[in-house]
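hey can u check if this looks right to u? its 649 residues, i copy pasted from the old doc so theres a chance i mangled smth
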Amino acid sequence: MTKGLALSLTVVIACALADFRGSAAETPDATSGVRLKAISSRVNAQGASLVIEATEPVPYVSTRPDPLTVALDFRNVGTDGLANSITPNAASPITSVAVEPSEMLGVRIARVKVGLARPVGYHVRSERNTVVVEFDNILEPTEPSARPASRATPDALQALKAAAVAPDALSALRGSPADVTAGTVSRATSASQLLSQQTPGSPRTAAAPQSAQSTLSAAPSVQAAAAGQIGSTATGQERRYQGHPVSMQFEGLDLRAVLRLFAEISGLNMVIDPTVQGSVDVALTEVPWDQALDIILRANKLGYVVDGTIVRIAPITVLSDEEAQRRKLADERALSGDLQVLTRTLSYAKAADLVQLITRSALSARGTVQVDPRTNTLIITDLQAPITKADDLLRTLDTPQPQVEIEARIVQTNRNYARALGIRWGFTGRAEAALGNTTNLAFPNSGVLQGAAAPGGTAINLPVPGAPSAVGLALGSVNGAFNLDIALSALENSGNLRILSSPRVSTLNNVAAEMTQGLQIPYQTSSNNTTITAFKDAALKLIVTPQITAAGTVILNVNLENSSADFAGIRKGIDPPPINTQRAITTLLVSDGDTTVIGGIYTNSQQNRSDRTPGLSQIPILSWLFKSESTGDASTELLIFITPRIIKA
């Protein structure tokens, strides 16, 4: 802070609670008992001090009319019997002290003018019934003197008006409903934005709050600061308060009086709404005065608007209602006028698809849209401004879309392998007299042993069905008493199947293309004693929706379904066969002309079968005479290769 010649303003209000129940501008009778008792000075190593004693705490305003004069104004304070003991002292910068009657804002004041031998910095503080002005010993550089302004200068008013209508501030306020609750409405910026800048000022003021007292001290030169310090903060950023520090302690002080005091401090043209009522209870120490004003406004739910060079303060509800009325009036004016008709025939877009978009984006409350599907024409009725906006929007939307050629290569492979080994064998043995091989016993004398479940059968019958190869062996005795038949059968087969198809289709951007390959299975169904023939699809179906990006790549939304009929699974009473379905849904990003592979659908089935005779099939080595085994392995694989190509216009 600059000391010396900078214009300074220090305000201290100190009165008992009972003295502030009314207006701040009290009548002389209200404080007729308050008077100044004595004026004296003290000199020490730190500097000189001027001590003003009163009968009780008193409010004061400190100003510096010129570099060699400091003035203190006391409101509604008498000077009868004042003892002035000031005498010139070479060690003190104080040369003289004079008491003069004056008037400020219609209130009688006593002005104490202090003459200085040289320009020095000073501080003002309050100690109960005493006001102490402390002067520094350091010699200050001289600066052009400035007188306090009772009202904002043209530069301040111009800055205020610019701040109030700044595009950034306006757009931020209109887009943030929270501004109303923070004490601002529409065109009105917050108090911190109104009073946010500060010119390098003058001496700081410290006022020690005391119990049973109300004091306010404001820094010098705040009028000049207010005149050129009006600005705004960036939307969404933390508020920055740059006013000169002040200390305030109010209890029950009239709100309107406090606002008038801020008008005097800042030098702003201020109009207070008649509905503003209430009292102020605050205790602030060394806070920026613009922040203090902002806090008081928000605490009392007040906001303000700027009208030309005048700041109007009113309750937020009042300002909100006024702003709502202004918006309503503006809307009514905007909706007034003659309706116009626009007919627009679309070439590429479907008229019915754009009705909702045009209605929401361009038309006013009076606007309507009709569609003529025969000619693909939109008929728009509205005011001239919305009509123009809708026409511009239609010109943007009704443009040809690029096409995409989609080439798909579908590869389907089937592999199978089977192997089987089987055996059949049987025997017969006879003991008969005709063959000469009886048992020589009375019983049993003869018999027949046959290895077959039935005549002509075999003891072990485990062949390979449909075996393409077999070997047989038959052994027997000369007389036919014993015969042995054995046959081995074997099977091994393998197969490979490969199906390749390469369909191509072209489609518009963001329009689905569908490719289907397969068959339709007819079946009959009855309903109401009527037999009808229906068809069930068993096919490979590929649905691709391309989307061209700004970078020239293509986003592919792929829906793949592979269905096949399971004729082996047909159950009695069900006409159509079951359908085996495999499905894949995915999204891919592919460059123009590149090929991508959709993960193949792969199935594999393995089968092992063993037919055997219990017990005997477990005998080592001989077990192969009592069992038959077969193995099978089948696999299928489906691969999809997709290549998108953007068709250049």
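The two ends are 70 Å apart (CA to CA).
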